[in-house]
Amino acid sequence: MEEAQKKVRDYIRKNEDRAACYLQRLVQEDSTRGQESSAQAVIIEKCRELGLIMDIWEIGGETLKNHPAFCSDRKVFIGNPNAVGTLKGRGGGRSLILNGHIDVVPVGEVSAWDQDPFSGHIENGRLFGRGSTDMKGGTVSLLLALEAIVNSGITLKGNVIFQSVIEEESGGAGTLAAVLRGYTADGAIIPEPTNMKFFPKQQGSMWFRITVKGKQAHGGTRYEGVSAIEKAELILKGLRELEAKRNSRITDPLFAAIPIPIPINVGKISSGSWPSSVPDSAIIEGRMGVAPDETMENAKEEMAEALREIAASDPWLRNHQPETEWFGASWLPGNLEIDHELVGVLGKAFEKIKGCSPVIEASPWATDGGILNKIGGVPVVVFGPGVTKMAHDANEYINLKDVYEAAEVIALAILEWCGTA
Amino acid sequence: MEEAQKKVRDYIRKNEDRAACYLQRLVQEDSTRGQESSAQAVIIEKCRELGLIMDIWEIGGETLKNHPAFCSDRKVFIGNPNAVGTLKGRGGGRSLILNGHIDVVPVGEVSAWDQDPFSGHIENGRLFGRGSTDMKGGTVSLLLALEAIVNSGITLKGNVIFQSVIEEESGGAGTLAAVLRGYTADGAIIPEPTNMKFFPKQQGSMWFRITVKGKQAHGGTRYEGVSAIEKAELILKGLRELEAKRNSRITDPLFAAIPIPIPINVGKISSGSWPSSVPDSAIIEGRMGVAPDETMENAKEEMAEALREIAASDPWLRNHQPETEWFGASWLPGNLEIDHELVGVLGKAFEKIKGCSPVIEASPWATDGGILNKIGGVPVVVFGPGVTKMAHDANEYINLKDVYEAAEVIALAILEWCGTA
Q: What is the ipTM of this complex?
């Protein structure tokens, strides 16, 4: 084992520059939603080089679309496949999924970028570009780790299943399709941008829309109407109380450093169309955080109960119940106890490479880990080299040193988790 | 005088059905802002029938647009004129303006109407349609009163100036143009929908827009941002406190029956564009009521002071002051003491027709009476047959009986005020 570890670490160190060039090439392929294919081709080329058994397919079909966790408004998946490459083990070891998403979020305002958003420009050890941090850098860590193992001539006992999926940024249909295709394992690592932290638990989330009714009237006799804005204020206050109540229950030390572990964020309100009319409708839209150990259904029910209580406290709302829709995106939370062996194996590898203990937290956002965990039943740790705060931002970048170190950590974890022949 | 009174009353009673048909025709001409011409044509036709000296002109020009009370975002007035018809008196009597606006507010959601919004449908003594109550019914009362006087062969001493103006619903530029064209008089009656009440005082109003800043962040870490919606809630609360303070000062018995004499109505709020982002801006729009005895400037200053106090109470707002704009429409309040002779003359006519005293109140909304009164220096009573609560509403209607009775009251008041030869 010591020898295998040395081999892969030496391999990675010798091939850092090649890995940086590969990441640059990957970032230069714009893989915004709906045009993931050219970046996937770069991934698939590398997988073939490594001799992985490839499974490349366009997601879709009734089983996927009818699944309760399916969440996508995308009509066409043709031409932009999922890619899964399996490194078959000799047998007798634990299997491991290495999951990365190839889709990137839109670049936003181009003028906010100092370089072309898909430049892949390298400067002072940073590689810039949309997707560099979220999460092509993490994917390169995975591939570099695998390459090190394969090219060092090491044979694993357990299977390694490398997945490059689409649709993570839009609800996780790519990973859900992989799970439904039968890909599960004894563990999974997702190298999302965690600043090299471990996130064995991830906050889930879903979007809500609450519609509050009022009664129209002329503003000069506003007492003859009922302001939907004033009623919406009761809902806003109630949502803050619900948030406080839900968060007061969370005692998991992983959340200790997080001011609001599972926020209820009101992102949007819209009411009225005329300054001198009493508005008869208000629409509140937001995102409800979901705790790792709760189900989406329980969270929805708790929201419904809170709204019933708010409505019960107000004569108007009692007779004009606010209506709730769950719309748009939803992401399942992920939940792995920190004493799970996967955390231990990954932690040991981390300590070996970094000379210190990993920071273990709960993430304030969900990843495809929720689907792997809650639908696939796979223990998942989210751990990766990206810079959390730069994800989705202009001038997104990644520190290349972290890409290499994450590759070393992941390579060692693979050796330990899957076992060597 | 007794004989003249009898003649006009008889005339009105005999011509009720014709008046109803005329009102129906007037309502059927959609005179929403920007398309007032076809309804004006129906008015002008009637005025010519009565032999009034017509003055028909397209408003506009620098004098109007530069006037401090001018308030309109309308670019084009071409093709939709003001119409003024004068019934010249023999001399030696008091003059009287009879003012009605031809513009109607938009119909709103058509599906909320039981009939076509411009049907003019008559059922059980009610005539339905946008503008029936606000205020084509009142205008028909004016014309019926004038017709009764003219067709009964009565000669008045003072001039009667009938005005059919545009733009009342959007800030009163039509009546302001008439004042600036030189039309003033010893008194004025405006038959807005008052439910046959007298409004010698009218609430003024103006529109405000308050912009509140926040700080953007991801909803999953919302504590890293500052919600503009939460800050807007502080403003909403503060505006209600300001409203309470301003209304507590009003002791005029004319306001005794009005729950909120000068309301501050928030008609619109808009904030955020994405459910899972913390919104960084919120816009509140509303209407501030202005008391008959205060100036617009004083009311604005009181709002500014209240916002400064709200901002001072919150650390974020202290450094990110909300911004206020006064935009769109504004209506001057009207203020006539109830012992003015115009109130007396109209009241005597009312008692004669209705057999009881009029209800005298302050109106909860402004009319063009504010401009006639504050800019033209004309004593104004607002009194008309429309159903106050149906103004601007779906299924707007007017009780035809009130149209006829208002015509009788106004006819008698004209005889008394202007004097008969």
A: 0.85
Instruction: Read off the pLDDT of residues B101-112 as tens digits, 9 standing for 90 and up.
Output: 999 999 988 999
Q: Residue with structure tokens 């769950």?
A: A326
Structural domains in chain A, sorted by start: 2-202+333-418 (3.40.630.10), 206-330 (3.30.70.360)
Per residue in B86-99, pLDDT (tens digit) is 999 999 999 999 99
Supply the pLDDT for residue B324. 98
Of A206-215, A216-225, B230-239, minimum mean pLDDT range:
A216-225
Q: What is the pLDDT of residue B64?
A: 96
DSSP secondary structure string for all residues of B242-262: HHHHHHHT---GGGTT-SSSS
CB B144 within 8 A of CB B404: yes
Indicate the angle between helix axes B2-14 and B400-418, nearest 10 degrees: 160
Surface of A (160-189) touching B: CB under 8 A: none
d(CA B160, CA B418): 8
Query: DSSP 3-state assignment of A240?
Result: helix
Q: Whose CA is closest to B354, among B400, B409, B407, B403?
A: B409
Alpha-carbon distance values, A268 to A283, A311, B230, B232, B283 (Å): 8, 21, 11, 12, 12
Lookup result for tokens 């010249």: B88
State yes or no: cis peptide before B135, omega within 30 of 0.
yes
Query: What's the Cα-to-Cα distance from A183 to each of A102, A162, B79, B233, rounded to whole Å?
Result: 18, 10, 72, 49
B276 CB neighbours in chain A (<8 A) are: 205, 207, 265, 267, 286-287, 329
Question: Which residue type, as a one-letter code, is found at position B124?
Answer: N
> What is the enclosing helix (H) or strand (E) of B44?
helix B37-49
Q: Looking at chain B from residue 243 to 282, which residues have their Cβ under 8 Å from any Cβ of chain A?
A: 259-260, 263, 265-279, 282
Predicted confidence at residue B73, as pLDDT, reads: 86
Helices (H) and strands (E) in chain A, counts: 12, 18
Phi, psi of A161 (to 5 degrees): -115, 105
pLDDT digits (tens, 9 = 90+) for B323-342: 999 998 788 999 999 999 99
Contact present, B54 and B10 (Cβ < 8 Å): no
Q: Token pair for residue A132? A: 């560099």
- Extract the tokens encoding B222: 């919302």
Query: Hey, which bits of A254-396 come out as E strands?
Result: 264-271, 277-278, 281-290, 323-331, 334-335, 360-363, 380-383
C-alpha B303/C-alpha B287 separation (Å) is 12
Q: What is the 3-state secondary structure (H, E, C) of A147-183?
A: HHHHHCCCCECCCEEEEEECCHHHCCHHHHHHHHCCC
CB atoms within 10 A of CB A196: 22
Which chain A residues are Cβ-neighbours of B227 within 8 angstroms? 265-266
